[in-house]
Design brief:
Elements lengths: L4 E3 L2 E3 L3 E4 L6 H11 L3 E5 L14 H4 L6 E5 L6 H14 L5 E4 L12 H13 L3 E6 L3 H10 L3 E4 L13 H10 L5 E3 L5 H10 L3 E4 L1 H4 L4 H21 L22
Parallel strand pairs: 3-4, 3-10, 4-5, 6-7, 7-8, 9-10
Antiparallel strand pairs: 1-2
Length: about 260
């Protein structure tokens, strides 16, 4: 952990966060999470049992909280009131854990964030003692507003949830990274390993994904590929890429001392 991801004062060795939905069963979920190296796993409280449905299998049997940081999210919520209620339930189920992922959606077709309701919910949750990681549009102004409210991580979409379209607007992400002091974590739209690497190369602090792994033909293998991509992207960012030179070639090898010169 020479270069940890720090969220709400806690260090994490992995910059890859993964979702837990859309797998064929909990065994495949655990195998993919292990292959990804992720330490933070996000759970849709409205869709996954973590104890609210007694008698049913619980995700926590496969991903125990003593081994992973369970990040409850509000997937399926379309207004601030439902999102706040859902996360208060999650806090009770997880013995008072305060770290949560807020997402308030605008419509069921695009799953684009409803920013007025997101801002409203974020303000309530922060005042209620939650450590809020927040899914949002790639608008640098609204990202700054969420940071000012006290959110511990800003999570702009790269493209629509589940689309696999990759990073469609790197310029807006760059503006957010430049202006935000808390971690910036790309959330939604990643389709393959190169998308994850690009996010980290841009300077994002991490990336969260679910569908890109769970809907791959081999989810466990894709999870391993994403782990490597995130690590490579971060190393490239820290190394600092060479400057781009338009229409100018530069020899890679020395041009002095050549035979015949």
């Amino acid at each position: 952990m020479n270069d940890p991801l720090v969220i709400a004062g806690k260090n994490y060795g992995s910059r890859l966060l993964v979702g837990t939905g859309k797998y064929k069963d909990f065994a495949q979920t655990r195998a993919a999470v292990d292959a990804s190296g992720a330490e933070i796993v996000t759970v849709a409280i409205r869709r996954t049992n973590i104890g609210q449905n007694p008698g049913e299998s619980s995700l926590l049997d496969a991903l125990p909280p003593e081994r992973f940081t369970i990040l409850p999210n509000t997937a399926g919520c379309f207004n601030a009131e439902d999102a706040v209620r859902t996360l208060r339930l999650a806090r009770e189920l997880l013995d008072g854990s305060a770290l949560v992922k807020l997402e308030v959606l605008g419509d069921p077709a695009s799953l684009y964030p409803n920013m007025p309701e997101t801002l409203k919910a974020a303000e309530i949750l922060v005042k209620d003692g939650f450590q809020v990681m927040v899914y949002c549009s790639d608008d640098p102004i609204q990202a700054r507003m969420l940071e000012d409210l006290g959110c511990v991580a800003i999570m702009p979409l790269a493209s629509l949830i589940g689309s696999g379209m990759g990073i469609l607007n790197p310029w807006n992400l760059a503006l957010i990274i430049e202006r935000i002091k808390v971690p910036v974590i790309v959330d939604a739209g990643v389709g393959t390993a190169s998308d994850a690497a690009i996010a980290l190369e841009l300077g994002c602090d991490g990336v969260l994904m679910n569908t890109a792994i769970a809907h791959a033909q081999d989810p466990v293998r894709m999870a391993g590929a994403m782990k490597k991509a995130v690590e490579a992207g971060r190393e490239a960012f820290l190394a600092g890429r060479m400057a781009k030179k338009t229409y100018t070639a530069a020899a890679s090898s020395p041009t002095t001392g050549l035979i015949g010169s």
